[in-house]
Amino acid sequence: MARVLTPRAEDFPRWYQDLIAKAKLADNGPVRGTMVIRPAGYAIWERMQAEMDARIKAAGAENAYFPLFIPESYLKREAEHVEGFSPELAVVTHGGGKQLAEPVVVRPTSETVIGEFMAKWIDSYRDLPLLLNQWANVVRWELRPRIFLRTSEFLWQEGHTAHATREDARAYARRILHEAYEDLMVNVLGIPVVVGLKTARERFAGATATYTCEGMMGDGKALQLGTSHELGQNFAKAFDISYSSAEGGREHAWTTSWGTSTRMLGGLIMCHGDDNGLRVPPKLAPVQAYVMIVKDGEGVSEAAAKLRDALRDAGVRVALDDRTDTAFGRRAVDAELRGYPVRVEVGPRDLAAGNAVVVRRTDGSKAPTPVADVVGAVLAALEADQRALHDQALEFRRSRTVEVSTLAEAIEASATGWAMVPWSAVGVPGEAEANAQGVTVRCLLRADGSVPDSEDEPDLVAILARAY
User: Fold this and answer.
1) Do 231 and 313 belong together in one domain?
2) Domain end residue (candidates: 384, 414, 446)
3) What is the arithmetic mean of pLDDT over 443-449?
4) Where is coiled-coil annotated (predicted)?
5) Judgement on whether residues 101 and 183 belong to the same structural domain of the protein
6) Dihedrals φ, ψ of 223, to 5°?
7) What is the DSSP secondary structure assignment for residue 199, as one 8-state letter?
8) Cα dihedral: 2, 8, 10, 11 (round 10)
């Protein structure tokens, strides 16, 4: 393959930008910090959406939609929340050629406006739990933008729920964390995430607990891929989300919120991409098998079309490239860049021998395969390569994660990967010291790897890393 990307080992940030441009995933928008998601990138996002949406609905939540504009007064009613978001807010002061009586905020997240309507819709304990989700765009004015990772406007889902008890709210926040987020990231995106509790310093503004899914990227840095929050009764009290209990009293609800975004696309690129471009896990790939006519000849087009149809009938998402007026080498490079899991190359020479060539993106292997066996070979490759991408990422994370006993050792180890250190050796003062050196506590775990309820539990382990 011709070299079209900056090598990852030479300049990882430049490689990332090159890949996004050359694979035609996205472009910078006309306003600083915004992005245009191109069809190739949006097709992957649509697959992420579909997989996530199915998991959210399986957990009982229903989709709704809430306004883009939020009265400024709503945010001010939850003081800690507005304080946490103040530097990122985009505020509209004029509309229709006139100054507005009250400024409106372009939603950075929707706890406040959804809280207002939860209060309106909930009356009795019979109305609980109320489980809502919306797919939307949000705006957080970003000072250091990077496509997919940090942009002033991005796409996401945000879930918001209200419950009768703290226990029910916690259980639901964790259900989403594991059954929707962790399951999607591990089993579809092929990204082995560490699931843990955020420290108070890293907690979402207004939350009582924040749970996170952290993935290691190809340069050893961490990326937060999704979070689920217990909000306690903070928003319920600010917006009077209350209900009549079975005993006849009036109680405030317990609420949660949770979200994942187009940041997952950035994580996909940086976790699985290589010097030839994207490598998309087969379960996620919009195109799983790409049938390519190498050169037209007697029976080639017909054979390629039959293979496409046979693959489609076998349940494979397939596309046919018959653009023989474009050089095959260029088309092959583009297919590598876009990360199609399997290519099936059909040309006169191979077809004369009764074969097509099956090319696997994950390991680069090429295998002449009898035409009658192509469907079986493709199905086997898709299954094997889904596992292979996850296992490669897991092995990389293991190789770049070290166990240490002191804060100084953890900060040093964070230069090349992750450090696992006793939380008691870090604590609040140590976390501030690490932050001053560009290192953050990504999450806290119990000794057995499970998710703690509180950072005050004994014998917790902290994961420290540099992060995006």
Assistant:
1) no
2) 384
3) 97
4) none
5) yes
6) -135, 125
7) P
8) 110
Residue 2, in any domain of the structure: no
For the chain, what percentages of helix, strand and coil (3-state, to nearest 5) are there? 40, 30, 35
Same domain, residue pair 27 and 67: yes
Cβ contact 389:382 at 8 Å: no
What is the rounded CA–CA span in Å between residue 84 and residue 16?
30
Per-residue pLDDT tens over the stretch 320-346: 999 999 999 999 999 999 999 999 999
Picking from 102, 100, 97, the residue whose alpha carbon sits closest to that of residue 73 is 102
Angle between helices 263-272 and 374-399 (to 10 degrees): 90
Cα dist from 355 to 303, 345, 348, 359, 375, whole Å: 10, 9, 10, 13, 12
pLDDT of 2: 52
- Token digits of residue 67: 């306004």
Number of domain units in the chain: 2
With a CB cutoff of 8 Å and minimum separation 6, the contacts of 434 are 407, 410, 411, 414, 426, 440, 441, 464
The whole domain housing 328 covers: 289-384
| Average pLDDT value for residue range 164-174 | 98
Same domain? 66 vs 150: yes
Phi-psi region of 84 (alpha: psi -120 to 50; beta: other; left: phi over 0): alpha
**CA angle, 33 as apex, 27 and 34 as ends, to 5°?**
50
Work out the average pLDDT over 207-235. 97
Q: Domain boundary residue among 223, 239, 272?
A: 272
Q: What is the CATH number of the domain that holds 379?
A: 3.40.50.800
Decide the pairing of beta strands 440-445 and 418-422: unpaired
Q: How many CB atoms lie within 10 A of CB 58?
A: 12
Q: In what order do the strands lie in the sheet containing 69-71? A: 69-71, 98-106, 90-95
Domain with residue 176: its CATH number is 3.30.930.10
Which has the closest alpha carbon to 263: 376, 153, 126? Answer: 153
CA distances from 364 to 130, 230, 392 (A): 49, 44, 14
Q: Which tokens in the block code for residue 343? A: 């290519």
Please, are residues 129 and 163 in contact by the beta-carbon 8 Å criterion? yes
Are residues 84 and 45 both part of a single domain?
A: yes
Helix, strand or coil for residue 380?
helix
What pTM value is reported for the model? 0.96
Instruction: Decide the pairing of beta strands 130-139 and 62-63.
Output: parallel
Distance of CA 110 to the CA centre of its chain: 19
- Looking at the domain assignment, is residue 102 inside a domain? yes
